[in-house]
Amino acid sequence: MASKTESARDESDDAPAESTDSESTLETARRQLHRAAGHLDIDQNIVERLNYPKKVHEVTIPIERDDGSVDVFTGYRAQHDSVRGPFKGGLRYHPDVTRDECVGLGMWMTWKCAVMDLPFGGAKGGVAVNPKELSGGEKERLTRRFAQELRDNIGPNQDIPAPDMGTDPQTMAWLMDAYSMQEGETTPGVVTGKPPVVGGSEGREEAPGRSVAIITQLVCEYYDRRLEDTTVAIQGYGSVGANAARLLDEWGATVVAISDVNGAMYEPDGIETAAVPSHDEEPEAVTAYADTVISNDELLTLDVDVLVPAALGNVITEENADAIAADFVVEGANGPTTSTADSILAERDIAVIPDILANAGGVTVSYFEWLQDINRRAWSLERVNDELEVEMQAAWDAVRSEFERSDVTWRDAAYIVALSRLADAHEARGLWP
Ligand code: NAD
Known about the structure:
Layout: H1 25-38, H2 44-50, E1 55-64, E2 70-81, E3 87-93, H3 99-115, E4 121-127, H4 136-150, E5 159-163, H5 169-183, H6 207-222, E6 231-235, H7 239-250, E7 254-260, E8 263-266, E9 293-294, H8 296-300, E10 306-309, E11 328-330, H9 339-347, E12 351-353, H10 355-358, H11 361-375, H12 381-406, H13 410-429
Helix pairs in contact: 1-3, 1-13, 3-13, 4-5, 6-7, 6-11, 6-12, 11-12, 12-13
């Protein structure tokens, strides 16, 4: 994801930020909190509590490099809120990881889990390191040492990490192994996104793309469009983009454009998505299979029914929001629309279905994985997909009724649903002592 500009804004400054294109992740998360709170009659003390993380762990991680030298990296785990259940969120390995970014992304996870009504709170963590500069052995040592440093603060009932940028199922398997070795018992539920052979769930990898496709189908239904008459452009052909594209294609939509970092394939009559390898199957191969290549910028402004940005953050901006020609934007990536662009699209009556709902299939199947782990019982792929559909429909129904009741944008409706659930839980539990 394109890194969002880090701001020098102090953590203690809790006023909602101005909506700008250079907003940091933390500012965005706080601004959304205050926007949603403005629509609800909730105790300001609860809003004040949600404005801050519960805890942020900062650790140093020394590792021995392959040449025998020692390097020390900094790792974080920001635990935002756990009123509804254990903290949940990814661990990323990226040079731009900072404390504030983890706090902001942890807040997003709180909203995402709440809008999906999952019994989890929000967290995010990571190590400020370039994983491309680590050998496999170095990455394993880094992960095991990070797990050890965080051991007292994670666990199936405390905080459950998952893969994110720069980490993958293998990283989660090492983390689970390191934790289990120290605990003296195999504890698969400490992380999700593991390989199925050590307690990972079937369908986890495809889940964010599947939820994007399900939500796109529900949007079309809501606005009386037949999927068979719907054209779709999708930026990014990785885990989220390719899975969403293939499902929508299979369900009858016409996918006219897909892209990777090199550019976009454009077929006005529809792309046979199964014939184009995804990022995972053959990295950055989309344009090699294309007869007509257009740029990623052109893809974003195609006159289609549905636009799915599923590659990077901050791609729909003040610069191009006026040129977006789609009727609906379904956010596959995290944070693809800047705040300013969001306001422009709202003024232009373009419905934007927010990331915290559309791509939440990932954390939802992570929840299923955690259930399978603690119950020691694996589910079939069919069961995972059926239950995901049920959860997506329920979340959609809740957001749709808020959208209709409050006459707000889809994004605001999703945040209002999330915040009201959080506020009710805080209200019921009270402030201790
Ligand atoms: P991925 O690495 O599998 O695929 C990314 C795709 O984007 C690739 O096709 C790549 O070529 C393309 N891309 C990279 N840079 C680009 C650029 N400058 N312009 C156009 N395309 C570009 O990643 P992913 O897992 O599919 O994640 C995509 C987005 O979805 C990210 O924002 C991620 O945070 C978000 N997301 C992922 C998951 C998940 O579990 N995979 C869950 C929720 C949200």
